[in-house]
Amino acid sequence: MIDLRSDTVTHPTEAMRRAMAEAEVGDDVYGEDPTINRLQETAAALVGKEAALFVPTGTMGNQIAIAVHSRPGREVLCEARAHVVEHEMASMAVVSGCMPRPIATSDGILTAEAVENALRPDGPSVTRAGVIVVENTHNLWSGAVTPLRAVEAIGALARDRGIPMHMDGARVFNAATALGITADRMAAPADSIMFCLSKGLCAPVGSLLAGSRPFIDEARRWRKRLGGGMRQAGVLAAAGLVALQTMRDRLAEDHANARLLADGLGELRGLRLDIPDPLTNMVYIRIEGPRFTNRKVVAALRERGVLCNASGEARIRMVTHHGIERDDVQTAVRAMGEALAASHAS
Known about the structure:
Helices cover 43% and strands 16% of the residues. It is α/β, with parallel strands linked by helices and 346 residues long. Helix 6 runs parallel beside helix 7 and helix 13 crosses helix 14. The protein is globular. It starts with a strand and ends with a helix. The mean pLDDT is 96.
C-alpha cells in the first residue's frame, strides 16, 4: 500500500532501531535518564531555547504550554482552524479552564493585525487573553507556512501587550525548510514551542516542548499531573536523537514530492486543490461534482492500493513523507484518475 494518510505513519529507520536497542536509560521522573537529557538539550539548542521537555505527544505539549502560560477563565487566541481548536478535544477547557478565541483567516496565516483586532479592551465583563498560539505549519490549511516576518510581528505585539506566545510547531522543521531558514529563527519570537519527532522526522514516539528554564520547570510539573512521566523512556528518546541528527535535511524531498503530487492531481477533472503549489508536504483536494463524494473516492483509492484520509465533507488529504518516492506519487495520481472514473460510473 502507498500510505498517504499522514506523515505519522512513518517507521523508525534502522539507525533509530539500533540506537533504541543500545540506549542508556534511567528514571526520567527523577531527571536521571541520560538519553532523554541529551535529547532535551539537543532540542532546546535547535530551537534556540534555554530548556526542553520530552513529552509523549504534541497535543500534550500544546496543552501543557497553555496551562503554564495562561490561567482558568482566559482566552486562547489562535487561527480558527488551528489544531488546538479542531483536534485536541477541547482540552484547553478541560485541562486549563480556558476557551478559544478563533481568528478566521482566508489562508491560514495569522497576522499581528488580525490578532490585534481580536484583542478586546479590558473591562469587568470581558475575558482576558491568556496566550496566543501560532501553528506553523498549519495542518488544515494544506501545510501553509506563516512567514517569519508575520511570526515576528505577532511576537512583538504579544510582548507589547504582555501576552505569552506559544508556537504549535509540530512540523516546524518543514516550515523552516520551506523558508530556507533555521528552526531557531522561526521559534525566536515565541515564548515556547512544541515540535513533533513522530511525523516527518520518522521517530516512533514523542514531541518536545521548549522554552525558558522556569517555563520548563513548571511544564515538568504539568507533565506529571497529566500522566506523562515515562520513567525509562530513553529507548524512545534515542530514536528522537537520531531523527534530529539525520532526518531534518531530507524534508525537502517530501516537499518536492508533494508538489509533484499536486501537479499530477491538478490535471484531473473533478478535483480542485486548496493550494495548487504546496510549500510543504500536504496536499488537500476538494471533490467537485454531484456524483462524487470524498469518502467514495477514498474507498476507491484503497481498492487500488493507495491510502489517504477524507477531511470533512468534501476534502481529501494526502501527505508525503519518508518512504514515499516519486514512483509512488505517480502511481497515486494514476489511481486517483481511475477512482474518479469508477466513482462517476457507479
